[in-house]
Amino acid sequence: MVIFEVQTKKTMKVIDDYNFEGKKALIRVDFNVPLDEALNVTDTSRIEAAKPTILKILEDGGSAVLMSHLGRPKGQRNDRMSLKHICEKVSEIIGVQVKFVDDCVGEKVEQAYTELQSGEMLLLENLRFYGEETNGDVAFAEKLSKFGDIYVNDAFGTAHRAHASTTIVAQFFPENKCFGYLLAKEIKAIETVMQTGEKPVTAILGGAKVSSKITIIENILDKVDHLIIGGGMTYTFVKAQGGNVGASICEEDKMGLALDILQQAEAKKVKVHLPVDVIAADDFDNNANTQMVQVNSIPDGWQGLDVGPETLKRFGEVILDSRTILWNGPVGVFEMESFAEGTISVGNYVDKATQNGAFSLVGGGDSVAAVKQFGFQDKVSYVSTGGGAMLESLEGKTLPGIAAILD
Ligand code: AMP
Hints:
Elements: H1 2-9, E1 24-28, H2 45-60, E2 63-67, H3 87-94, E3 98-101, H4 107-115, E4 121-124, H5 131-135, H6 138-145, E5 150-153, E6 177-179, H7 181-196, E7 201-205, H8 214-220, E8 226-229, H9 234-240, H10 255-267, E9 271-273, E10 277-281, E11 290-294, E12 303-307, H11 309-320, E13 324-328, H12 341-355, E14 359-362, H13 367-373, E15 382-383, H14 387-394, H15 400-406
Parallel strand pairs: 1-2, 1-5, 2-4, 3-4, 5-6, 7-8, 7-13, 8-9, 13-14, 14-15
Antiparallel strand pairs: 10-11, 10-12
Helix pairs in contact: 2-3, 9-10, 11-12
Bound molecules: adenosine monophosphate.
């Protein structure tokens, strides 16, 4: 991956390389947390994830200026998306009263910044109240850059965006910019899976469509020993090989690509494991009638919605034998109880492999939702916090927010 090629040539600056005593740190955090109708924070994980970075700065004797976006206000002020609603939670979690200013640039911020003392933290208003943020406006980024001696990026979830606060602002801190703990951990986890992990390396790819995973598959074929394919993607591969998939989700225009992937895998000596039996249903419904069938002989009108027991046995053997595991995407329609068993079993195997010393990374797109729903988040080595950013990393793309720190 390009980011890691760059990384190996340049020293990756992390937060521990700095002593923040008497310094003000401008930190891009990801406080894009869900709020309920009454504007209470319903999931605090993103605030908790930023805590180690903020505490390190405050405990060094520095002060922290926190900037984030919340929702999609599209360049307009919107009271429901004001970061003032999260101040209480931030103060509670970090253990320090946060100061808030209802803007992110301009005089009010300048004054609050000047008054900021060591050990204090200041939260700026939602960056996306300004269209300049998502446009990556240089002048806006320069204004933001006035609010810190050192720039710290700790927002992996937005690292794939070349926005003013995530990327552009870094150029105003040529010598004083670094990754926060969270972002550094994400980079390390991807690096382990893609480059330095112990063999055998296994990727478990599920989800709905081949088209959304194709770039990932192509990129990881050079890096893995085993590729487990599950979920809706299965049927494009099976039909391409001449099987009957009934009414299963299938992208006929991607069948050529599927065959091409299988050929590439063979040439690269990557073992591909596709389901052999599946639970077929006569409707896309939790209460549909079901039957267990061979994956390549699904009756007309029936659709495969989860993997079967023989498949799970085979997947399990591969997973338990792996030393490094990447898991992206459910192997069935896990949102419906009747078709969640396969994804739960895969989670149990990954858990067991992790207990046996394998490194396991779960991330990208909706994978995290499945893992959280079944309580696997504490049983795998690392759960990525960035859906889109993780997908782009797995596709081998250079994330602009990461490149800007390495520059
Ligand atoms: P993705 O965001 O691409 O990882 O896709 C996740 C979605 O794939 C989930 O909402 C699953 O319900 C769906 N999915 C998994 N297996 C199947 C299947 N056999 N048929 C249809 N959808 C599926």
